[in-house]
Write a structure and sequence with these properties.
Elements: H1 8-25, H2 30-41, H3 46-51, H4 59-73, H5 78-82, E1 85-87, E2 90-92, H6 106-116, E3 122-127, H7 133-141, E4 144-150, H8 153-165, E5 172-176, E6 189-194, E7 199-200, H9 216-219, E8 220-221, H10 227-236, E9 240-249, H11 255-264, E10 268-274, E11 280-286
Parallel strand pairs: 3-4, 3-6, 4-5, 6-9, 7-8
Antiparallel strand pairs: 1-2, 9-11, 10-11
Bound molecules: glutamine (GLN).
Amino acid sequence: MSGRLKTIGEVLNEAALMLRDYCEKKKEDYKKIALMIVSQILDMDKTEVILNKGLPVGQGKYEKIVNAVSKYLHDNPLQYCTNKAFFMGLEFYVDENVLIPRFDTEVLVEVAIEIFKGKKNLYFLDIGTGSGCIAVALCKFLDCRVLAVDISERALDVARKNAKLNGVENKISFIRSNLFEDIPKNLEFDAILSNPPYISKNEIFELDQRVLKEPHIALFSKEDGLWFFKEIANKAKLYLKDDGYIIFEVGFSQAEEVKRILEQSGYKNIKSRKDLNNIERCIFAING
Ligand code: GLN
């Protein structure tokens, strides 16, 4: 390395310049994107970046910023460019092997907190844990242990990393399993939670380029998008306590059908909760 290190202000300008044409075409604010990338890679909040424009940026961090910007220019979601996502106020490592945690999914965790607040020694199953965002958040906010399963070994590696990052690695066990296939039969849970793939293949053309960079096995469901709900609702009964809960995240316009699936599978007290966009996002019920 030769010459002096660049300052935060210079790096910010350089990133913004690289992003300008691309973002203008996409009607995005290039300065804002540059600030998000720089602040996330430097582990600072945005105000800190602006207040510290004169500080030097280490060579390693500078290279990470340039790499992140070029990934963004190749239509990657911002979270994959910086390897960071936020969920329930917690930080998560994310990459192309996992679905990016969504704010909508926080509703599911909030429902669990509401149901189980104050209870001790709970045991939950998180099916299709992906980044581990649901499992980790449950451990942070409730007195519980979680069994987190996923069909993808690479996703489980990411989830393990996130459990460590958030200091809950002792509360979560990870098993590679296609739904219930490899879950020991003798286990009994207070709740089974899942945000399964629920987009039907017909909807592929409606999705943003960046969403399509997320793992397709985490996004798409067979048939009409309801396949996983039927399968999980049916098998979950064997693993739930009598008063245990099933808690699903559902797609836009799937609420009524998922309620019907739960009713047909024999669940009681079926309820729903809306997300910030007023969409029925979480459906939950008691085993009964
Ligand atoms: N459980 C993870 C999440 O909610 C991953 C879900 C998935 O891959 N479908 O973000």
